[in-house]
UniProtKB/TrEMBL annotation:
Its EC number is 2.7.13.3. Keywords: ATP-binding, Coiled coil, Kinase, Membrane, Nucleotide-binding, Phosphoprotein, Transferase, Transmembrane, Transmembrane helix, Two-component regulatory system. The chain crosses the membrane at residues 49-69, 75-98, 110-130, 150-172. It is an enzyme of class 2 (transferase). It comes from the Bacteria. One of its GO terms (molecular function) is kinase activity. It catalyses: ATP + protein L-histidine = ADP + protein N-phospho-L-histidine. This is histidine kinase.
Length: 440
């Protein structure tokens, strides 16, 4: 695994300003070599200057040891190298100092200025030494006025240009690597953020689909089961007094039970087949990420309700007939030109009427109910209103349970299609449910 920029910064393990111990060891070794070189060259410098040898050696040792701080103060190292150049010492210090300076983060104008100063200083010192050598006859056979300038320029460029160019290359490469580390860190953070958001979206989608499936199963089962309970209560009341009516109620209970089981089997069948018949397996190293699994599960669940054939407005008559058979007086009125709507619009409209009638069975058994359906230019409106229930109701003994989710589910269905849902008691003591759904 590649170390990122943050890991690179926190990996400091060397003393003082060094990031690593091996960097401190390298600089210490270079400073020792430079000190030995300058100390040896200080012997000749002391002889030429008429100083004691010990003074020249100490001076060389002190000047060469400056290389120890090359990473922290590269300018100081280059300036010291330029200062001791006339004494013909500090060759290693000059080369390493120029390289460190060029590879540092200092502004280019400072690097160019110091490199130029070093070049000029080396050029002058080399020119003077070459001229003195020509005077002493040390370069016999290399006569001509061209030799001294040539050797001076060549030597100064050879000492200055290579370390500067190498330092510039290494510095540029180092900055490039730092930039790549920062980009890798940024990309890693973005990917982590995207993964977290993907998990949140997948979890949200799973919750939405669970709610949607639960609402659909509630609508499928609750209405028919409520009618079955009402008929069972009526059957219990008339079993001895009117056997023929009891037989008819028993037949209705059986029919509604079979219809409820059929619809329930259809939905459960789609739920079982939505994963392609595969059984869950244990997670392995090659398993997809959690976010991908969650998104796939949510996508599969979103097809469950769509694959089940939903009801349509043409089935309203049958729905009202079932309620009438259970003893409810229902008055249906349709206004406007009847036409076909999108499947989700018709299914939502049907479920609103179905759930409203179920609530009447549960909470106002025996009350007269009015169902109004209005086909408009760009929308469809429906209203289910019941009168107050009679004092004595045969269904009162049915004790139908209520989960309190019917009105919430209707409102969610209508709101999902951009419609408006309103429900509440009437002034006469009944209850009214109204919904308006856009036609497209």
């Amino acid at each position: 695994m590649t170390a990122t920029g943050e890991e690179h910064v926190t990996a400091r393990g060397g003393p003082w300003w060094w990031e690593r111990r091996r960097s401190a060891a390298l600089d210490g070794g270079l400073a020792l070599l430079s000190a030995v070189e300058c100390g040896a060259e200080g012997v000749k410098f002391a002889g030429d200057a008429g100083l004691p040898v010990a003074v020249g050696v100490v001076f060389g040792l002190l000047a060469g040891s400056v290389l120890l701080v090359r990473r922290q103060w590269p300018i100081a190292v280059v300036l010291v190298a330029i200062a001791v150049a006339p004494a013909q010492m500090g060759f290693l210090m000059s080369v390493v100092g120029l390289y460190t300076l060029a590879a540092s983060e200092l502004p280019r104008r400072i690097i160019a200025s110091l490199a130029g100063m070093s070049l000029v200083g080396t050029l002058i010192v080399t020119f003077v030494r070459a001229q003195q050598g020509m005077t002493r006859g040390e370069y016999e056979g290399f006569g001509g006025d061209w030799f001294v300038p040539f050797i001076s320029v060549t030597a100064s460029l050879g000492i200055t240009a290579p370390p500067v160019l190498l330092g510039l290359y290494v510095g540029a490469r180092r900055r490039l690597m730092e930039s790549l580390r920062e980009r890798a860190d940024s990309l890693e953070r973005e990917l982590q953020l995207l993964a977290e958001r993907a998990e949140e979206r997948a979890e949200w989608a799973r919750n939405e689909e669970r709610t949607r499936i639960a609402r659909e199963m509630h609508d499928v089962v609750a209405h028919r089961v409520s009618l079955m309970v009402v008929h069972a209560a009526a059957l219990q009341a008339v079993a001895r007094k009117d056997p023929e009516k009891a037989v008819r109620n028993a037949a209705l209970v059986g029919d509604m039970g079979r219809q409820a089981l059929t619809e329930l089997r259809e939905m459960l069948g789609v739920l079982r087949s939505s994963d392609g018949g595969r059984r869950p397996e244990r997670a392995s190293a090659g398993a997809p990420p959690l976010a991908a699994v969650g998104a796939a599960a949510a996508a599969a669940a979103s097809r469950v309700v769509d694959e089940v054939e939903g009801p349509c407005l043409d089935e309203l008559d049958e729905l009202i007939g079932q309620s009438a058979a259970a003893g409810m007086v229902v008055d249906l009125s349709v206004v406007g030109e009847v036409r076909a709507y999108a499947a989700e619009v018709e299914q939502t409209a049907f479920r609103v009427v179905q759930e409203a009638l179920t609530n009447v069975h549960k909470h106002a058994a025996g009350a007269k109910t009015y169902v109004r359906l209005a086909h408009r230019a760009s929308e469809i409106a429906m209203q289910v209103e019941n009168e107050p229930p009679p004092e004595a109701s045969s269904a009162s003994s049915a004790r139908l349970p209520s989960g309190g989710n019917g009105l919430v589910g209707m409102k969610e269905r209508v709101a999902a299609l951009g419609g408006v849902f309103v429900s509440g008691p009437t002034d006469a003591g009944g209850f009214r449910v109204s919904a308006v759904i856009p036609a497209s």
